[in-house]
Amino acid sequence: MSEEEEELGTELIAELYKPPALLPIAPLKDPLLYAIETFPVTIIVGETGSGKTTQIPQFLYKGGWTNDGSQIAVTQPRRIAATSVSARVAEELGCQLGQEVGYSIQFEDVTSEKTKIKFLTDGLLLREMLVDPLLKRYSVVMVDEAHERSLSSDILLSLLKKVLRARPDLRVVVSSATLDAEKFLDFFAPDDGQTVHSKTKVDYETIVSIEGRTHPVDIFYLSSPTNNYVEKAVDTALLIHNSEPDGDILLFVTGREEIDDAIDMVADRIADLGPSAKKLQPLPLYAGLSTEQQMYVFQKADQNTRKLIVSTNIAEASITIDGITYVIDTGYVKLRAYDPVLGLERLNIVPVSKASATQRAGRAGRTRPGKCFRMYTEVAYDALDDATFPEIQRSNLAPVILQLMNLGIQNVVRFDFLDNPPSALVVRALDLLFSLGAVDAYGRLTKPLGARMAELPLEPMLARALLNAPSFGVLSEMLTIAAMMTLQGTAFVAHDGNNKQLERARSRFAVKEGDHVTLYNVYQAFTNPAVGKQSPQWCRENCLNYKAMLKAVSVRKQLRNSLDRMGIQENTLTSSDAIRVGGMEVTERVQRCLTTGFFAQAARMKSDGSFVAVGGDTVLWAHPSSLFFHRKVDWVVYHEIQESKGKVYIRDLTSVEMEWLTEYAPEYYKVKQR
Ligand code: CDP
Ligand code: MG
C-alpha cells in the first residue's frame, strides 16, 4: 500500500476500489498489447490479485480489439468467478452489467447486442463451439485460471490449438497463477515445421510475467500431526485473535460441512471471551453462497472486529479478498474422483498439492507481510504432490467425449490432450455412451440421437431420458423434472437450520414414487396461479428457494426451446407407443422414462434400509433429502452419488421395477450378469 493510500484512512479506502493504476499489471499494459498483437498465443503468468482477470480484458477493449464488432471472451472455471468478476469490470468501466460487459453461464445469459467483454465458464464456451466451431464472434479468447486444469479448460485449450490453424487472426491469451507456463508453451508450439523448433516457438507465442508485489509470508507448521484439523484450525484462529496484531484471517477447509462445524466451534469459543475483548466475526465462503452473504465477506468489518473467513479452496485463486494477513491452511481439499469400475463419482478429501499450499499461503501477503499457519507438519508438506492432478484424469468423461464427437472429433483416443486421460476413463465413457445409444458399435456418434444428446445442456443420462419422453407421452413432465434436476438439490432450504419445518414442507409434495415426481409436484404448485402464484411469500411458507424456483422456470423454457429447434413436439406419441403406454398412470410412464436414462444407476434396498448397486458391493445410503431416507422401497434408479464422512449417499431416487431395467437396457444388463 502506498503512503497516499494510507493517508486516506481505512474508512475511505473501503468505499473506493484500488485504482487499477496501482495494480502490478499496470506497467505491463503496452508490452502485453504488443505481445497479443504480435503472437497468436500469449501466456501470462502472475500472482493472484495482480489484475489479470479484471484488467487484461479492459486493455484489449480500449486497445481496439472489439472495434470491428467482435467480442472478447474470458473463461473461468467457476460460475461464481464469472459473475463476480464481470460485475467488477462493469463497475470499473462505468457501465451496467449486461451492456458492454456481460457474463454467460449455463442457463443464464446476461449479455446484449452491445456486449464487448464477455465472461463465461469454460464449459459454456465449449458449448458455443457447437454452433460456432471457429469462435468467429471473438477476436480474443482468454482462458483464465488455466493452471487449475479444469476438465473444460483443458479441452478448450486443445480445441483452440486446432481453431488457430484455421484462424490466424484469432488471439489466445492463457493466464495462469503458477509456474506452469512452460507446459502451456510447449503445448501450443506448432509441431509441424520440423526446423528450429525453438525459433518457431518464439515466433508463435510468448510468455509475459507480471512481477509480483507480494510481501513476505512467514510459514508455521505443527510440530506433531493432528487428527482433527478443523478443531486445531479453530484453536489457531483464536490464538491469532488473542495474541496477534490486527488483520483478517482466512481459514481453508474442504467444504460446507467443515465450514459449518468450524463456525459453530468459533461461536462457542467466542462466547467465553470477555465482553470488552475485540470481536471475532466468522464468515463462510463457498461457491453456492447467495449474493447477500458474499457481501459480508467482501465488506470491511466493523470497528474493533476481526473477520475470520472460513472458505473452501475457492479463495485460493479465483476470488480475492482484501485485508487478509493470516492464513490457516488445514492442508486438505475436496476433489472429484471418478471410479470407472463402479461408475461412481466421488468427492474425496485429499491432501492439497505443494502448488496449492503455496498459493494459499500467498493470500496472507497481498497488502503487507503476513503469516501462514499450516495444520500439518513440515514432513507432511515435503511429502505432498507438486501439483494437483488435472481434472481430466479423474472425471466422468462421457459428457465431454459426447461433445467432442459432436464437434466432429471421432477418434477421441488420438485427440491432442494437454495430459492424456487414463484409458480406463475413456473406455468407461464410451461404454456408457454406447449403452445410452449415443455411440454405435464402431464408436461413432449416432444421428440424430447422439447428436441431440450432445446439444442438450444436460448430462447424457438425463438428456437420454428427456429425449425418450415423447414416446411415453410425458414430455411436459420430463421437461419439468429435467429443469428441477439442474437445481442440484437447492430447491428446498431450511429457515435458520430448522430441519423439522423443512421436512414438513417437503412431505406436502411427496409421493411414493420418489424424489423426481416430488420435485415435479413442487414445480407444478409453484407455477399454479391458484397455489404458488410464483410468489416469494409462498416459497417462504414452503421452505422453497424462490430464486432457484425462478431459475427452474427459466431453464424449463430454454430446454423447451432446444427441443423445438430439434423439431420435437409434445405429442409425438405414435399409435403403437400409445397402446404400449395406454392405461398406464402418468407417474408410471415417468418412472419408466427415467429408467431409460438412468438404468446404469440402479440399486436395491436391503432389509436394513441401505442400498446395493447392481453388480457392486458398495453399501449405498439414501441421502437425507430423499423420500427413501425413511421409507421402504425395492429397486430405485438414482441421479447422483456422493460420499460424505465415509458414507456413500445416493440422491434423487425414483422407485422402478426390476423388469424395466432389463426391458430398457437388455444389452447393459446382459453384460452385467455374466
Ligand atoms: O486475476 P488476478 O488474480 O490477477 O487479479 P484480479 O482478479 O484482476 O484482481 C485485481 C484487483 O482487483 C485485486 O486487488 C482485487 O482485490 C480487486 N478486485 C476486487 O476488489 N473485487 C473483485 N470482484 C475483483 C477484483
Ligand atoms: Mg484472476
UniProtKB/TrEMBL annotation:
SUPFAM superfamilies: P-loop containing nucleoside triphosphate hydrolases. GO terms for molecular function: ATP binding; hydrolase activity; RNA binding; RNA helicase activity. SMART domains: DEXDc (SM00487), HA2 (SM00847), HELICc (SM00490). Residues 33-197 form the Helicase ATP-binding domain. Keywords: ATP-binding, Helicase, Hydrolase, mRNA processing, mRNA splicing, Nucleotide-binding. One of its GO terms (cellular component) is catalytic step 2 spliceosome. InterPro entries: DEAD-box_helicase_OB_fold, DEAD/DEAH_box_helicase_dom, DNA/RNA_helicase_DEAH_CS, HA2_WH, Helicase-assoc_dom, Helicase_ATP-bd, Helicase_C-like, P-loop_NTPase. CDD domains: SF2_C_RHA. Residues 233-408 form the Helicase C-terminal domain. The keyword Ribosomal protein does not apply. One of its GO terms (biological process) is RNA splicing. It catalyses: ATP + H2O = ADP + phosphate + H(+). The keyword Ribosomal protein does not apply. Its EC number is 3.6.4.13. Belongs to the DEAD box helicase family. DEAH subfamily. This is RNA helicase.
